[in-house]
């Protein structure tokens, strides 16, 4: 197959999932922001304009219900609509700048992003005012929704498929339950933790500073349960086991789910596999009690692979799955799985995902929406030695696109990287890459070490392995940095 025959497949990475997308909704007032000072200022202004003695301290002590409800406590019913309109006229000038984010807001939103989730705000507040607050405070929320209270919030939560709703009011609990979402209550509003718990909140936190840790644990549990459910549906499985953190975790999970006797770890042996990777892979599989096979793959015989365009990984993964299929057939196994995770699926420059998908390979980690960080966390909890193992892409990823790949080039890179790693062993180096740029080599190491090591020593060592010239990249290690050198990166991003 030539690269010309490979067309973008936008739906391959998306695929199907065993758990719903993480969508977290938040109430606004006294959940995300302390809007009391600004709201009090507007009510004080209304009291001054109308001469009505409004207890503004009382007003801001019971935020949550719709504005019309509160306005009816101070003005005749016939005047409520007019006073609401007047309130909203003053609101942008007096209420926005006086409001502050509550502790833990930025960290909570960041935690959702890290889990590849989406966010929304569902508030009883006037929708334009919701937007003004979020924009003023720079809160990155995907979907702001206003003018909904209590169980009515469930309408918007259902529409956007929210799985969790966070609020400070009993009405927010009603909204979460109406949508079938997990109700997380924070005791930063008018109700105590005990009152929120008694009302029926599924989870009660003192404030949002506790939310990221709770969310990480909750989502990881949900995704791990989904992974194990999926794995138990297979009697036997072949795991494409590179020895890296992702495929090692998948291998361990499969052994737990269906028993080590029903799992085969297959580590492809070829010039593109760093020599130092094979023995640890064999040891890991043996520790699980899993049969370990080491078939030789011949991606070097594929023109598309040797040509080394941005689609190179397509041909490599095609060779891998086609090599593993006869092994699976020999043992009567229908399931071949790769360690593709949820981050891989959206990273771009992953043509190999499509190649594996076309050949029927499974992606259980991705389907459970497990991120790289979650896989490392779960690996640590399981005591897997691969939990903190640095990423180790195939050696071909070190060769600049357009340079034809040969076994000699791969061996030179492998030797150079092993030499650099040995020189930096005392520095506890994690990431080392020697990028073959054709007329010279680029040495990438952990950015934190750049000012601690002698660059010339590294350059001399790499040149001694056969490179005509070399330099240490001042930006440090960057996964996939070769992609920066593609002339037309978008051509390959969604392959």
Radius of gyration: 28 Å
Instruction: Indicate the mean pLDDT.
Output: 91
- Strand order across the largest sheet: 5-4-1-6-7-8
**What is the second-level CATH architecture of the largest domain?**
3-Layer(aba) Sandwich
Compute the number of structural domains.
3
Would you report the number of β strands? 15
Structural class: alpha/beta
Weakly predicted, low-confidence segments: 1-14, 491-495
Morphology:
elongated
CATH class annotation of the largest domain: Alpha Beta
For the sheet with most strands, the description reads:
6 strands, parallel
Q: For this structure, what is the CATH homologous superfamily of the largest domain?
A: HAD superfamily/HAD-like
Assembly category: single chain
- As for the CATH topology of the largest domain, it is Rossmann fold
Organism: Kribbella shirazensis
Biased composition (Basic and acidic residues): 485-495
Pfam family, one: Hydrolase
Protein name: ATP-dependent sacrificial sulfur transferase LarE
General description of the model:
43% of the residues are buried. Helix 7 crosses helix 8. A hairpin with a 4-residue loop joins strand 13 (432-436) and strand 14 (441-445). The strands form 4 sheets. A 6-stranded parallel beta sheet has the order 5-4-1-6-7-8, with helices on both faces. Helices cover 43% and strands 11% of the residues. It has 495 residues and is of the alpha/beta class. The protein folds into 3 domains: 3-15 and 233-382, HUPs (Rossmann fold, 3-Layer(aba) Sandwich); 18-225, Rossmann fold; 395-491, Alpha-Beta Plaits (2-Layer Sandwich). The protein contains 20 helices and 15 strands.
